[in-house]
Amino acid sequence: MTDEHAQDLAALHALGLLEGEEAAEFERREAAEPELARLAAELRETTAALALATPRVLPPDRLKIVLLARVAEPLRPQFRVPAWVPWAAAALLLVSCGGLLLERERLRGELFRLHSTDETARSEREGLRGELTRLRATDALAQVELRALRAAGGQSLRAVAVVAWDPVTQRGLFEVQQLPAPAAGKDYQLWVIDPARADPVSAGVFLVDANGRAALRFHPVAANLQPTNFAVSLEPAGGSPQTTGPILLVGQ
Amino acid sequence: MLAAAAGGDRRAFAALYDRLAPPLFSLVLRMVGDHAAAEDVFQEIFLRIWRRLPTYDGRRSSVFTWAVTIARSKAIDHLRALGRRRQTFVSPLEGEQTGAAPDPTASGDVLAQERDAAANVRRALAGLPTEQREAIELAFFGGLSHPEIAGRLGQPLGTVKARIRRGLLRLRDELPRVGENSSSSPPP
């Protein structure tokens, strides 16, 4: 039978009221006396149940988004990428390469024009040559980051989505499949989650076609984003400046 | 789910979050009394849960108990850092009883089970002698030390310890029996 003093210690320990040497004494006894250890475990469970006595208040959805972003791994494809993702990445690569080609041609023309001028033009020419070399060496695909989005915890959606994000241009490509049309008066909204910001940044609302598919390029208004995740929520028609509705898809 | 979350599976952690978030947020809000502060403390609680999951020992307590311990510890740290306790302590039994906010992510069975568990705990707590209930509530929800509880109640330390011991032992004995067909068990 556990003595009253030990019972006192067990009760106080369960409530976190023991400190210093008292706590150490109790933990020594708990380790050495199975009956006391049993009592202590029972009182810990009883004490924790007291948390249920408080009126139930749900935390805002955005806390979950921010939390999952904070525990997220760095963006890298550790998931099974849907078959159509390489096409999406290829499309983005084409867009980027197209931009690079245009830039290269512009610089060629500039180089030709400067060839026939004076010493000032010659030094400018040297600078442009260096820039052209850098652009030729740029691998546009290496900087693109991919993230697959799936149903958030508790959601029973079959939809899958992918985001291809270019941190240099701060633009992205989003594609989703099997997302049912939203209810009347509602829109889907894409969000960029940057842990340096208090709230997710809107990347815009989007519509799905009859097959539950949507594809869009997005360019968030906020600058210098370093996203660690992306999410889709259901918002009032036209979207919201901040998330107000349930999170349906979130990056894995 | 726990093993997966402990291994870094964020989907499993998200599922764990869904089960633990409502009671933990409710508790933290009750303890710190301020919505903005509760959100900050709440985030830190789950970050600690995420970091410590690999060391969670299921032989020592249920995951709910383990998580509530972390939550109370963080809330009490917050109150101590501010150098204050809530001057006006409101027992959860005296607070608003409108209860469950709509939770679109929880199934009907889960909500019913949690409502039953909450009702059982409130009933057991209300059934304690006033002096025992007050001492336990000041410790659990108020975050007071037992000398502070003794001072607040104007009672010797030994008396406060005895009231806490008797109250908790009675709750331990009452909770499994309250409600024949309902569960007094918190979420796993």
Regions of chain B with pLDDT < 50 over 5+ consecutive residues? 95-105, 178-185
- Beta-strand portion of chain B reads under 5%
Number of helices of chain B: 8
The outline of chain A comes out as elongated
Run of helices and strands of chain B = HHHHHHHH
The largest contact between protein chains, plus residue counts on each side, is: A-B, 48 and 70 residues
Q: Approximately how much helix is present in the residues of chain A?
A: 25-40%
Q: Beta-strand level of the residues of chain A, as a percent range?
A: 15-25%
> What is the radius of gyration of chain B?
17 Å
Radius of gyration computed on alpha carbons of chain A: 29 Å
Note the topology:
The complex is a heterodimer of chains A (252) and B (188).
Chain A: H1 4-14, H2 20-32, H3 34-49, H4 61-70, H5 85-115, H6 119-137, E1 145-151, E2 160-166, E3 171-177, E4 186-193, E5 201-206, E6 214-218, E7 229-236, E8 247-251
Antiparallel strand pairs in A: 1-2, 1-8, 2-3, 3-6, 4-5, 4-7, 7-8
Helix pairs in contact in A: 1-2, 1-3, 2-3, 5-6
Chain B: H1 2-6, H2 10-32, H3 35-52, H4 63-81, H5 108-126, H6 130-140, H7 146-153, H8 157-174
Helix pairs in contact in B: 2-3, 2-4, 3-4, 6-8, 7-8
Structure description:
The complex is a heterodimer of chains A (252) and B (188). Chain A is an alpha+beta fold and 252 residues long. In chain A, 40% of the residues lie in helices and 21% in strands. Chain A contains six helices and eight strands, in the order ααααααββββββββ. In chain A, strands 5-4-7-8-1-2-3-6 form an eight-stranded antiparallel sheet. In chain A, α1 (4-14) packs across α3 and α2 (20-32) crosses α3. Chain A is elongated, with a radius of gyration of 29 Å. Residues 74-79 of chain A have low confidence and may be disordered. Chain B has 188 residues and is mainly alpha-helical. Chain B contains eight helices and no strands. In chain B, α2 crosses α4 (63-81) and α7 (146-153) crosses α8 (157-174). Chain B is globular. Mean pLDDT of chain B is 82; it is low at 95-105 and 178-185. Chains A and B meet through α1, α3 and α4 of A and α2, α3, α4, α5 and α6 of B.
